[in-house]
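// run 5 | inverse folding | seed 20
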């Protein structure tokens, strides 16, 4: 829901900057004025709906895909490319097309970045139910590192072995 509000506000701010500061109209149906009209409201509602649809897509991917944020990034990124190119398919002034494409690009980047970052934090890592492939024996209590006692080599106990207390190579 918050991403939808952000997307709608980006439209309103983008239209205000484009119309009032730069003097460039944003593409609207039938060439109507975009500032303060129903066209701005429709544009903002469309951006909010796109953010809600992207949220639903991310939720479905989180339920069904092993790495949902990667797939969401690709799908939403390609959708952002489409909505950025879309204004250039209409016959209008080039500056109006560029202004509309810039607003669409910013909307797409905002939706992708917000939802992808929130999607990463929403995924719970499931702990491994059995961390060890085997069951420790009964009565075994792990105590950390234990030093092994020195065991005498078996060759001293063998028959015919003579122990020398001196070094024969001196």
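// decoded
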């Amino acid at each position: 829901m918050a991403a939808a509000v952000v997307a709608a506000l980006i439209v309103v701010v983008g239209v205000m900057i484009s119309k009032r500061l730069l003097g460039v109209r944003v593409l609207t149906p039938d060439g109507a004025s975009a500032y303060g009209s129903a066209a701005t409201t429709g544009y903002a509602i469309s951006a909010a709906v796109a953010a809600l649809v992207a949220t639903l897509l991310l939720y479905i991917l989180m339920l069904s895909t092993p790495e949902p944020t990667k797939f969401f990034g690709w799908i939403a990124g390609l959708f952002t490319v489409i909505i950025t190119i879309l204004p250039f398919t209409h016959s209008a002034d080039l500056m109006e097309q560029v202004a509309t494409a810039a607003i669409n690009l910013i909307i797409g980047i905002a939706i992708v970045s917000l939802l992808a970052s929130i999607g990463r934090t929403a995924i719970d890592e499931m702990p491994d139910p059995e961390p060890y492939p085997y069951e420790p024996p009964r009565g075994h209590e792990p105590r950390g590192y234990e030093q092994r006692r020195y065991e005498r080599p078996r060759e001293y106990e063998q028959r015919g072995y003579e122990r020398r207390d001196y070094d024969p190579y001196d």
